[in-house]
Amino acid sequence: MRSYSKFFRTAVWLFAFALVNAAGSAYADMRLSTSTDPGTEQKPDLNNQLTSLLGQEHQALRQINIDRMRVITAAPKTSLRPVKRGETPDIPKISYTREWLNSQPVASGGAEWECLTQALYFEARGESVSGQFAVAEVILNRVDSSRFPNTVCAVVNQGTGKRNQCQFSYTCDGKAEVVNEPAAYTNVGKIARALLDGAPRNLTVGATYYHNQSVRPRWARVFTRTASIDGHFFYR
């Protein structure tokens, strides 16, 4: 019983001490102590001790400035804007339409954005908006896959300079990468920005390969076809 009482008294003391310490300078003159010497321990009156401690706590709380109390009890601030009903926070809202694309601000970014934008321009600038999104999804799905490099630039340039090994034909067709259609480059840059910012990849169901429907590569026989968009088949 004695050890239990001692434990209970110590727990109460720790609770009171934490509360006193959190209040700051208003508690500077308050001291709570308990003996750790078993030879001086007396049989405690727990009810009286608890009542005394709570009274001291109430007295200390009354000394706290009201502004200090607001600071202590205030909820943490957040920089996130309020989330509307049915909306997912911080994920770009997209629509696979020309109207949506035209409504987006001109995009920019670092090396990863540039590599993805260039890939979309040279590989898919003639496709519909959904077709361009689909090609971008394949590239980013590869980045996420352990079977491919883990950056956009490395995925796009995988096999470049090796005959019949480049993954994206524009990187090994022997032609200089020159942007002759700046409006098209601006548009695919918006798509690259949206997906790099976390827009959902809803079109290709995790595809990591695609080919034009006019050809029949042997590898297509062993992968699962996931989508058909703008004359291309997509596989994972």
Automatic annotation (TrEMBL):
Cell wall hydrolase SleB domain: which residues?
Answer: 126-235
Q: Which InterPro entries match?
A: Cell_wall_hydrolase_SleB, SleB_dom1
Q: Which organism is it from?
A: Profundibacter amoris
Tell me what this protein is called.
Answer: Cell wall hydrolase
Q: Which UniProt keywords apply?
A: Hydrolase, Signal
Task: Quote the Pfam families the UniProt record gives.
Answer: Hydrolase_2 (PF07486)
Gene3D superfamilies for the chain: Cell wall hydrolase SleB, domain 1
Organism phylogeny: Bacteria, Pseudomonadati, Pseudomonadota, Alphaproteobacteria, Rhodobacterales
Segment forming the signal sequence = 1-28
Q: Which GO terms describe its molecular function?
A: hydrolase activity
Its domain of life reads Bacteria
